[in-house]
Every structure is written in structure tokens, then in C-alpha cells.
Sequence to fold (186 residues):
Amino acid sequence: MKRIDTMYAAVVVVAAAVWFALLLQPNLNEQTALKMEGDSIRSRLDQFRATMAELPGYVQTQQELASAKRKLNARLYAKDDILDLLKLLQREAEEAGLVLIDITPPVEELLELGKASRQNLPDFLNLRLQLSGNYIDFGRYVGLLEGSPFFRGANYCRVVASSEAETPTHYVFAFKALLGSIEEST
Fold:
């Protein structure tokens, strides 16, 4: 009987080992995998909640950046006006028979145009033109400038002529221009 009890005990131990190896262990492994997956999902859900909590701040930042961009773009008109004015001066000088050698707006004034505190003030720019040609053409050109809606007064004029007839006369003419009124003259 003892032998039968030992065999039964051995069969029960073997059956328990088989049951553990075939049925319980895979179930435990699956539970462990599900627990790890659940932890991962909870972690991602926490990250999602944190992201959603930051979303209003992100939207507000985006709106502030868009507003700042609109304000900067609104101030860019001065740049376009300056370029239009310079093109107009070049074209009118050529039409008057003069050679436009150089146009110089002061850098300080260009930087001042971009400041936000000037938004309600008209934008003026002092320009210095270097030209060459004959006296009559220069006189007509200055008269044309004086009649332009952007012209706000002469600041300086210098004429350098040579005693040699074939050397062109050089002129330096500086004036104040009102930006924003250029399209009226084109």
C-alpha cells in the first residue's frame, strides 16, 4: 500500500507539475504581460492628460505669436514704401536724362521706422541722391521731385562741375520724403 501511496503521490506531483507548466504558467505569463501593457497604457494616458493640460497654454502662445506676426507685418509697409520710392527716384532720374549714382537713406532713420512707438506718426525719411548730368536736366528733375506728393522739403544741394566740357556735372541733393504717399505719384 505504501508503494501505491508513493505512486499516487508521485502521479499527483507530476500532474501538478504538468498542470503548472501547461496551464498555470502561460496564464501567469499572460497576466504579467497584460499588467505591463496596462501600465504602459496608463503611462501614455498620463502623458496625454499632461499634454491636454498644456494645450490651452500652447493655443494662447500660438495666438500671441500670430498677433505679434500681424503687428510686424503691419509695420513692413515702410519697407515696401522705401523700395517703391527708390525705384521711382531711379526711373524719374533716367527719364530726366540723369544718371543716378547713389541713394542713401540714413541707417538710423531706417531703424527708427521699425519701432512700435512710431505707429501713429507719419513716416518721414531723409534721402541723399548723387546724380550726374547737365544743369537743365537736373533742374527739371528737382522740379519734378518738388511736385511729388512725397516731397517734404530740400535739406541740401551741392553742384560739382569741372572746367572740362566732356566731364559730366555731379550733384548731391538731399530731401525729406513722406512714406505712404508714394502710390499717389506713380
